[in-house]
Amino acid sequence: MATTEGIGLMEPMLPPDGERELEDLAVDLATKASGLASQLPPAVRLGVGDLVRSMNCYYSNLIEGHDTHPRDIDRALAHADYSADPQKRALQHEAVAHIEVQRLIDHREDLRVETTSTEYIPGSVKKHLQNQRKVKINILKFQ
What we know:
This protein is mainly α. It has helices spanning 21-39, 42-63, 70-79, 86-106, 120-134. Helix 3 packs across helix 4 (86-106) and helix 4 (86-106) packs antiparallel against helix 5. It is globular, with a radius of gyration of 18 Å. Mean pLDDT is 78; it is low at 135-143.
């Protein structure tokens, strides 16, 4: 029998008020990352971005129980080489839709508001779902 654990086990989800150490570390990390990125040739930055989007997709989907191997994601992205297995193919389409939305965010394409705003997030989810519908995915039927 499965047990349900309360959200309280994850708290505190934010550092306590007045706790500046984590904020300072985050600012330092962002500053150093920006400095590193500015030293890389554009082609390298774009390649790293593609790699990170693919990794994020893999791990995000894995957390949700959608186990699409990175090799299968890359095949779908690079060659539109989709599996003959319907479940695997649906997961590949889901991954491609996920990565496409993240690419739009990263490149700020069609951006009217800040990506962290409450106005942007529902639109991003809607775009992801529209991308999935375009390829006629019904991932739920495979769960």
